[in-house]
Amino acid sequence: MANYNSLDKSIAKALLSIKAVFLRPEEPFIWASGIKSPIYCDNRLTLSDVKVRREVEAGLAEIVKTHYPECEALMGTSTAGIAHAALTAEILGLPMGYVRSGAKDHGRGNQIEGRLEKGQKVVVIEDLISTGGSVIEVVNVLRDAGAEVLGIASIFTYGMQKGIDRLKEANVKNVSLSNLDALLEVAVETGYISETDKERIKKFRDNPADESWINA
């Protein structure tokens, strides 16, 4: 029987078990950007499974305590990160809020919901990081509002080079509970995919624009 002692593989196993992640190299998914992908991830499903939800939120809380001990508030990304930010904030006894994808067109026109003080040290809670564009927008909104963004705590990252480069350029740290490499190891160990499929998916991750992995 496979040994899943490390947290990243434990979370990966959990995501696969509740079908929050699908690996389908033979029948690629089409992302909103038009990119063909052998993987689809919907971490919202973790909210519907009590056991997995507890493991995820405990893991996010541990990331904040270990990597961002000065954190004063959590800010979720809209919409997937909101519930995770709320649950993790409850564990840690911290304030939370969230950042809208755009300012409201009514009321006070807020883009940041919840109280945010200038100079407050915050951690952004995100469910999934691929190319990093959306979460960096959230970081920039918070910085423009005067927050000190310590970094990001996320559930899963693909580890795409574009995402890594963007985070570095934005000078923002990300710590994820799990990642594509750990998930592929678990998927091979459990017989979900073959070793050949693992290499095809990694080829996609390394260069999504190169579709040669489809017929590899």
Overall description:
By secondary structure, the protein is of the alpha/beta class. The chain is built from seven helices and ten strands. The strands form three sheets. A six-stranded mixed beta sheet has the order 7-6-5-8-9-10, with helices on both faces. A two-stranded antiparallel ribbon has the order 1-4. Strand 2 and strand 3 (36-37) form a beta hairpin. Helix 1 (7-17) packs across helix 6 and helix 6 runs antiparallel to helix 7 (195-206). The protein is globular. The model is unreliable at 1-5 (pLDDT under 50).
Which SSEs are present, and which pair or pack?
Elements: H1 7-17, E1 21-23, E2 29-30, E3 36-37, E4 39-41, H2 50-67, E5 73-77, H3 80-92, E6 96-99, E7 112-113, E8 121-129, H4 133-144, E9 148-157, H5 161-169, E10 174-179, H6 180-189, H7 195-206
Parallel strand pairs: 5-6, 5-8, 8-9, 9-10
Antiparallel strand pairs: 1-4, 2-3, 6-7
Instruction: Please report which band the strand proportion falls in: under 5%, 5-15%, 15-25%, 25-35%, 35-45% or over 45%.
Output: 15-25%
Helix content: 25-40%
Task: Tell how many strands the DSSP assignment holds.
Answer: 10
Low-confidence stretches: 1-5
State the helix count. 7
Distance between the termini: 30 Å
Instruction: Spell out the helices and strands N to C.
Output: HEEEEHEHEEEHEHEHH
Strand order of the largest sheet: 7-6-5-8-9-10
